[in-house]
Amino acid sequence: MNTNNLPVITISRKYGAGGSTIAKGLSEKLSIPWYDREFTSLISKNSGYSEAEIMTEGEEMSITTKFLDGLLNNVAAYVSSHDAIFKAQKESIIEMAKSPCIIVGRCANVILRSEGIKTFDIFLYADKETRLKRALELIKDPKVDALKYLEHKDMLRETYYNRYTKRKLGLYEDYNICLDTGRTGYSKAIEILAYIIQNDCREEEEDSEA
Q1: What is the C-alpha separation between 105 and 46, in angstroms, rounded?
Q2: CA distances from 136 to 20, 154, 155, 166, 189 (A)
Q3: What are the pLDDT digits (tens) for 22-74?
Q4: The whole model's pTM is what?
Q5: What pLDDT, on a 0 to 100 scale, did the predictor assign at position 17?
Q6: Residue extents of the structural domains in the chain
Q7: Which CATH class for the 3-201 domain?
Q8: Distance of CA 186 to CAs 18, 35, 158, Å?
Q9: d(Cα 125, Cα 143) in Å, to the nearest integer?
Q10: Cα–Cα–Cα angle for 63, 109, 74, rounded to 5 degrees
Q11: Which candidate in 27, 130, 184, 200 could, as Cys together with 34 as Cys, close a disulfide (CB 3.0–4.6 Å)?
């Protein structure tokens, strides 16, 4: 199969559902690059913001910040850091999508759809127990309440997604497939997704040759 015929793959996810792990596995299966935090340096160059700022503001937003940005955006001279970073991320995502790749988060599914770019959009979720177990692996500080942290991360991502897409994160109609990684496990999820994407690609190749 010609990897050039693969679509750009976007992965949206609930916190702790294994987005980066599955993106990495798909990347290996399909032989295409994947991007999550790796392109913060590119976005930093495009926006003028530091990589640390992009890491904290590039996919998350509190409800209070959303309200204040909405209020202050009516002032002509005001541009929020979230808006500037989003603009730079959007430009970088469109540039990356010139060839097949996997992009995790950052509203990539909606951004690329609005540009008319062919994508295969995935949403990953899992039960709270599974995600909490993963959160405990990711959190370095033992003093942090993992459950509150998980719920807070979900809220920040959902608020950010709504702010820049005007949609609710996780609506099934926004994706080609929604997958419960708590049921499948990461390895099986990678196999399922790779099979579907490769099969779709083969069918399109056969149709074009017919």
Answers
A1: 18
A2: 16, 15, 18, 31, 21
A3: 999 999 999 999 987 667 777 777 667 777 777 665 565 444 444 444 444 44
A4: 0.84
A5: 96
A6: 3-201
A7: alpha beta
A8: 7, 18, 23
A9: 26
A10: 40
A11: 27
